[in-house]
């Protein structure tokens, strides 16, 4: 399948990105305590954890102390004691919770450093952390969360959500099914119309910046191009009225807003310069993004499936 827009190779590389994961059953829920076999899986970065809950239950069911009392829908995962938000993309969770510099990730178990893969998570079926996680309270909860996020991104891009809302029922269903089945061609045949071929001029870039340890998410209105202003007076104003009638007119300078510019605006304490990483690095899809990257181009090529640029901040050692 072909479509107009940014190079498919970039989109494909992002879509195919994955994380090797080792999942352990909580020893307190296992009939063999800490001797339960681990479950290994390669998780797509752009996918969501609940889509893999059925596989996890099928694997660990025989190890559960009382499987008859377990509700598979109440599964949840943690990383080093931190519950994982099921409505956030897997790649984003990895980037913000590990804080790992992608330049140093390794699969060497003998390395002894914090960048070792696979990513080790713990699976639970009890003691749901209600104070930290929303519940998957319906079979469609994940889909509803995804759709709401796509609508929010659409509103930021266009000033309304008409592009998403005008999708046919068939296309809306196919969009979500493409996430469930991890189907690149089906997804971009629909998403491309939302992100790059909208009938509306881009108003703002959908972007969220996640600070280390997921303690804070920063979101602001970010125009795609830098704005300037000029003074405007009505024709032949009187001296008495000129000051009160003075208006400032904003206009696009034509210079694109870059990653460095937006980070210096959103988190100036970590990004002192718009051109050089000195304290922290911006990470997207497991890649350190150059600060001079235009956001409008990044949005078209590297948005997560919900339409947002989810940028994690990794501290430099």
Automatic annotation (TrEMBL):
Q: What is the lineage of its organism?
A: Eukaryota, Fungi, Dikarya, Ascomycota, Pezizomycotina
Q: Where does this protein reside within or beyond the cell?
A: Preautophagosomal structure membrane
Indicate the segments forming the Autophagy protein ATG5 UblB domain, all copies: 204-313
What's the protein name? Autophagy protein 5
Q: Which GO terms describe its molecular function?
A: Atg8-family ligase activity
Protein species of origin:
Terfezia boudieri ATCC MYA-4762
Tell me, how does this one assemble? Conjugated with ATG12.
Domain named Autophagy protein ATG5 alpha-helical bundle region: which ranges? Answer: 140-196
Gene Ontology biological-process entries: autophagy of mitochondrion; cellular response to nitrogen starvation; piecemeal microautophagy of the nucleus
A single Gene Ontology CC term: Atg12-Atg5-Atg16 complex
- Family of the protein in this entry: Belongs to the ATG5 family.
What is its biological role? Involved in cytoplasm to vacuole transport (Cvt) and autophagic vesicle formation.
- Domain named Autophagy protein ATG5 UblA is located at 14-125
Write down the membrane topology: Peripheral membrane protein
A Pfam match is ATG5_UblB
Q: Mostly located where?
A: membrane
Q: Which InterPro entries match?
A: Atg5, ATG5_HBR, Atg5_HR, ATG5_UblA, Atg5_UblA_dom_sf, ATG5_UblB
Swiss-Prot/TrEMBL keywords? Autophagy, Isopeptide bond, Membrane, Transport, Ubl conjugation
């Amino acid at each position: 399948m072909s479509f107009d827009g940014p190079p498919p190779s970039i989109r494909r590389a992002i879509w195919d990105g994955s994380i090797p994961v080792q999942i352990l059953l909580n020893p307190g829920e296992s009939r063999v305590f800490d001797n339960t076999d681990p479950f290994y899986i390669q998780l797509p970065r752009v996918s969501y954890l609940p889509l893999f809950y059925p596989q996890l239950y099928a694997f660990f069911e025989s190890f559960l102390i009382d499987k008859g009392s377990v509700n598979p829908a109440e599964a949840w995962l943690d990383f080093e004691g931190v519950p994982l938000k099921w409505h956030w993309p897997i790649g984003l969770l990895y980037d913000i919770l590990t804080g790992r510099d992608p330049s140093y990730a390794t699969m060497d178990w003998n390395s002894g450093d914090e960048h070792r893969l696979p990513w080790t998570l713990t699976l639970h079926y009890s003691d749901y952390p209600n104070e930290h996680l929303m519940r998957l309270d319906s079979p469609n909860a994940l889909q509803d969360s995804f759709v709401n996020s796509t609508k929010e991104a659409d509103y930021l891009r266009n000033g309304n959500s008409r592009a998403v809302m005008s999708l046919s029922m068939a296309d809306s269903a196919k969009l979500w099914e493409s996430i469930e089945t991890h189907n690149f061609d089906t997804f971009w045949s629909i998403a491309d119309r939302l992100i790059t071929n909208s009938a509306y001029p881009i108003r703002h870039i959908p972007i969220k910046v996640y600070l280390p340890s997921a303690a804070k998410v920063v979101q602001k209105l970010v125009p795609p191009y830098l704005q300037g202003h000029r003074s405007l007076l009505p024709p032949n104003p009187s001296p008495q009225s000129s000051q009160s009638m003075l208006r400032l007119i904003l206009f696009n300078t034509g210079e694109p807003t870059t990653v460095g510019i937006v980070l210096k605006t959103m988190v100036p304490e970590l990004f002192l310069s718009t051109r050089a990483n000195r304290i922290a690095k911006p990470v997207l899809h497991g890649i350190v993004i150059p600060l001079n990257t235009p956001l409008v181009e990044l949005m078209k090529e590297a948005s997560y499936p919900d339409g947002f640029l989810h940028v994690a901040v990794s501290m430099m050692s």
